[in-house]
Design brief:
5-stranded antiparallel beta sheet; 6% helix; 3 helices; globular; mainly beta; 4-stranded antiparallel beta sheet; 344 residues
């Protein structure tokens, strides 16, 4: 007796603000929030956000999947939105807090979904055939006809293309970020791994084609199991490929924050039709989202995640400018007293 199907003209992508189930009423009580100083959950977590190349944005309430009641799993549209045709050709969507980053015919469209049922265009940025995007901290990494490009979204209202951060690729498609590396599904060039530790100066690490066996890469998702890291690649006409990125055998330094990947093809499976996309697995999610919205109930008296303003204090000066090491040196009044010739 369930119906989880929403008819549409041309759906291209769907995203949840977080992929861990959230029972929004769990921290609804004022007493608990006063004791723990927690924030109420943002209403954005009631919804899934769907983009359609013809219809624009479709929003549906998904609370039914987290309420423990299996008999009420019915979905319907909460809104359908495409004001002024701004989302024409929408093909991919990424969420960062209550901001949505949408790839469209015209380029990047950033939506403010602080009121999830009343979207507002926050900003637009022309890009040449934008395909997909992935967000990490203050940067949005996008794939376009020019390859992988980096956009500074420290302030989502004023996105800035980082001119020094282009990585030329002939057919960049899906992209996934895992700590200091970006993994790009790059068609005939296979899986391209890019070092993004310095977002303003990314460096291509390798193009992995498994000796030509990986030659139609459309999408990639990265997952981990204990000491091993795996990439799951939708390899178009070839089906699904599994790439082991780290293991104790191939990468002796497999422990640590971000070991260098050493890709090896370990498994594959043909699919009945071309493999175009891979679903994202369960992330080990955060306590708060990119805009400071609380995701998890902490459960200990006095414990809560940082708010958005509190997080910003880690990387902004009191006047709002971005913090740099130079600022701290200037404030402390340090004098460089090293003898001539001594390296900094």
């Amino acid at each position: 007796g369930q119906d989880v199907y929403i008819p549409s003209k041309n759906v291209t992508c769907m995203v949840l603000p977080t992929n861990q189930a959230i029972a929004l009423d769990r921290n609804k009580g004022e007493l608990m929030r006063v004791t723990n100083e927690e924030q109420a959950f943002h209403p954005i977590y009631h919804y899934a956000f769907i983009v359609d190349a013809d219809e624009g944005l479709i929003v549906t309430n998904v609370d039914t999947f987290a309420d423990g009641e299996p008999r009420n799993n019915f979905l319907k549209r909460a809104i359908t939105w495409n004001e002024g045709g701004v989302l024409k050709g929408a093909r991919h969507i990424t969420m960062g807090g209550y901001y949505a980053y949408v790839a469209t015919d015209a380029g990047l469209v950033i939506l403010n979904l602080n009121d999830p049922l009343k979207p507002v265009v926050a900003a637009t940025l022309p890009l040449k055939d934008m395909r997909a995007s992935a967000l990490q901290f203050r940067y949005l990494f996008v794939t376009t006809a020019d390859g992988m490009q980096t956009i500074d979204v420290t302030n989502p209202l004023t996105p800035t293309l980082v001119g020094t951060a282009n990585v030329a690729l002939a057919n960049a498609r899906g992209i996934y970020l895992a700590r200091t590396y970006a993994y790009v599904a790059a068609g005939k060039d296979g899986l391209v791994i890019i070092d993004i530790e310095k977002p303003h100066a990314p460096v291509e690490l390798t193009r992995f084609t498994a000796d030509g066996k990986l030659n139609d890469a459309q999408d990639v998702i990265v997952g981990s199991t204990n000491a091993s890291l795996f990439a799951y690649v939708a390899d178009g006409v070839n089906g699904l490929k599994v790439i082991q990125l780290t293991s104790p055998d191939s990468q002796p330094k497999f422990y640590g924050f971000s070991p260098e990947p050493k890709p090896q093809l370990i498994a594959w499976r043909k699919t009945k039709s071309a493999a175009l996309s891979v679903a994202k697995g369960l992330d080990r999610d955060r306590g708060a989202d990119e805009t400071g919205g609380q995701i998890a109930v902490f459960g200990r008296i006095g414990s809560r995640p940082f708010s958005g303003d509190e997080m910003a204090r880690f990387y902004r000066n009191p006047n709002g400018t971005l913090w740099a090491v130079k600022d701290e040196i200037d404030r402390a009044g340090f004098v460089d007293a090293r003898p001539a010739g001594v390296k900094k």
